[in-house]
Design brief:
With about 140 residues, this protein is mostly helical. Helix content is about 50%, strand content about 0%. The protein starts with 15 loop residues before the first helix and ends with a helix.
């Protein structure tokens, strides 16, 4: 049994070029970076040039959260006057106020949720407190 020495054995070509049918020495993958045009149309892909900032990275001007402040004041006023109406919406308004500088859209959503919660609290509170006040005034 004669065996071929290892240096004379032919190894199969497992390079990516051979498996894709490309000519030896050429690459089947597109050349260039992220900003190079894919088909020579002259338009950059995405990202633009490094000197231009990404369109979504512009600083957002954040002002005073008036809507959140009004919700917080009315919620605290409701807690002071009734004892129960406004506690959940005051907590939500405080959380929205805290989030206002770092994430304005999330703060706006929380403020909207706070207004809805305050409205539901007022509606349920009136259904409970008005009969309670009537009962309390008749039983003096």
């Amino acid at each position: 049994m004669s065996e071929t020495p290892p240096e004379q054995r032919r190894r199969p070509d497992l390079s990516p070029e051979s498996s894709f049918g490309a000519a030896p020495g050429s690459s089947p993958w597109p050349q260039g970076g992220f900003n190079s045009p894919p088909y020579g149309d002259g338009h950059p892909q995405q990202g633009g040039s490094p000197q231009q900032p990404y369109a979504g990275s512009a600083a957002v001007a954040v002002g005073f959260p008036r809507n959140t402040a009004v919700l917080l004041v009315l919620s605290v006023l409701g807690v002071v006057l009734t004892g129960i109406i406004g506690i959940p919406s005051a907590v939500i308004a405080a959380l929205a106020w805290h989030r206002h500088r770092t994430d304005p859209p999330a703060a706006a959503r929380r403020t909207t949720i706070g207004w809805i919660v305050l409205g539901v609290n007022v509606a349920i509170g009136m259904l409970v407190l008005i009969p309670f006040y009537i009962w309390a005034s008749n039983n003096r």
